[in-house]
Sequence to fold (820 residues):
Amino acid sequence: MERKKLLIADDSEMNRAILANMLEQDFEIMEVSDGKEALAALQIYRKDLSALLLDVVMPGMDGFQVLEEMKQRQWLEDVPTVMISAETSSSYIDQAFELGAADYINRPFSATVVRRRIINTILLHTRRQEMMDILTSRVYRQEKSSEVMLSILNFAVEYRNGEGGSHMSGVEYLTGLLLRRLLAVTEQYSLAPEDVDLICTASGLHDIGKLLVPEDILQKPGKLTDEEFAIIKTHTKLGAQILSELPMHRNEKLVKYAIEICRWHHERWNGEGYPDGLSGDHIPIAAQVVSLADAYDALTSKRSYKQALSHEKAIEMIHNGECGSYNPLLLRCLDDVSDTAKQGMKDAGQTVAPLRRVVEELYKGQDLAAARMTQQLEDAYAKQDFFTSLSDELWFDYTAQPSSLHLSRGLAEQTGLPSVILEPLQSPTLQMYLGKELTEGLERQLEGLTLEETRLDLTTKLRLRGRLRRCQLSVQITWSARKQKRCAALLGKVTDIENRSQCIEQLQAEIQHAETPQTLSQPPLPISASNGVIRITHHQLSHLFHTYQPLFETVRLVDPGICMQVTPGPDGPSVRENDHCYALWCNKQRCERCISQDAVRTRQIQNKVESIGKDMYYIIAVCIEVDGTPYSLECMNPIRLDSSPGGQEEHLLNQLLMRNRQVYMDSATQVFNRRYYDEQLRELSGEYAVAMIDVDNFKQVNDRFGHAAGDAALYRVAQTMRSLLRSSDALVRYGGDEFFLLFQSLPRAVLHQKLEVLCCAVRELKLPEFPELHLTISAGGVHGQGRVRDLILQADTALYEAKIKKDCVVVYEEDANEAE
Fold:
């Protein structure tokens, strides 16, 4: 395999040797000893070089002079250049970046830093070139699309006008020539270079008003009558009217130029034109230029009523005033561009070249930013290495373009592989480590995924610290937006599951060899235990399975961290290693909501509904500690459809709704109950807006109007608040007359206003059956970052203050409370 080439330019042989020794593992090294040799090598090899390492101080031609020459020859676009010097002065560093250096590395060298920063420089340069190509292509496509749409419109005008189909492009071309020459010879007109492009584009619309002129007049082969010519002349006003009445974009500069051109491109310098008889510079310069270009192209083109004239004859007639009078300065510009105009339109394929220059302008002066980005990348990798070294995380990051593989420090140390591998798919070292079976297996699995599938889990064996270990690879996939079914990037985590796999296999053996009890010696273990955790020894595991198997269709022990399971069957218990726990539901990747993972994490009982084909199952997951190690015990039963008449879907929906009400709905208020808070909301962590709400004087309501009134009040208050909330918000009856409210993605500034709206709605609430009952609420809110269980304490503090005044809102402010 051909390796990437690296050129080192340094007058010190020792320095070159040190650098070569650091980098020869990844690159083919070329060496030169001075600036002139460097330029000679670049002349021959620059297309093959990945980077240039350039010393600043060298005899003859120093590094800065080499950079200047490379910049002048535009070689820096091909070869990213890293300056190397013992000089640490900011003037040296700034000068290097101003001249186009991609990075600046100080001596003495650190092998790790030099290698990483050079590789980062190469990767950034490659990605920059790719982005320039993409942007150039996109700009070209957008320009081309606009050009095509305009050409269609122009062709429609020319077709009705009986013209040959190239009049608009001819006018646009000569308009550009005249405008650029005008900008070169005078500053009399307030035109910028970008205005030239706009006027050229707008010039193509100069005859759009002819769409409303009768076709028989436009294509009449003979001389027009006075009446017909009067109709023809209306195309100027009609065109301006069409554009002025656009429902959108009327204030765009392009449209304003187009309106000027449409209305006044038949005005003449001496005031003898139409429709308004403008003269001199009262005629907008855009209209003047298009008028001259229109006349020239009309003379040199074939029409239904005449033959095309030669270039020379057209120029002569224009100067003689046979087409009307024109700005003398524009006539001089026409003479200056006469030879170029005679050549006609340029090849449209050359459009890409100026677009490439436009894109390169976007990057002009960005070398310092690129260098800073290189340093930021280095800092980011250092942070990643620091944190992963603390947590022993094993991760990898692969990008297809440019092709590179980054390993965390922990993974590099345990595998013995380099932390950065260029062209990993062609690396013999990596291929030898992974083995053909794993490489081909990964490729097959990627090929079998759809673009909607972005997660891949597989179990394999890897050699870590010299020992073969069972490992789980969890991979996040980024698909290419440019190439169908092409992987653009992989971000993965490697988990050593050898010990956990052995533990679950031992549990399988324990169940398999345990004696089956003849009778149940004790009642079933409390699956609805208050703390949500079952604690047993491995000797009790077999009895646990035998206890629950008569109650559920499927009972299985799951280690959600590694997706392995023990599932008792007719032939004894089995451990499914490669057939992950989510395969039961015909899923190719982890469940969107893994209740086993939630049960182990929260130590609370979890439940959900899943499907296998057309069959629906209700699943309960409870955390079970076997000898202190947490697992999940999953118990599931099918949801049986009623045999009563009606559609099966309706029965199934009703059963699901009923089960949901039973589990998480408060029967008195028909909002979420306290269990929903405890099991689903309490342990959430993130940025939230939450509130505690209390019905004011609720005890007096019960005492004066009775408990029926109290129940009705709670229900109406809850439903009133619920009607003003979004579907993503959660309203919970927290206890008695208190409610808890969690807002999803609510801005901090809106929280107080939102709670005021709720207070106002309850204040206006009327209960017809209790006309004398007037209800109000007090609300305490907080917007913050953290666990919900902590935020609710702050909201409760705010509620305490609100209840002192009643019928008001208080939002918790941390600084104010700390000050007190």
Remarks:
- Residues 111-161 form the longest helix (51 residues).
- The first strand starts at residue 4 and ends at 9.
- The CA atoms of residues 315 and 321 lie 10 Å apart.
- DSSP finds 30 helices and 23 strands in the chain.
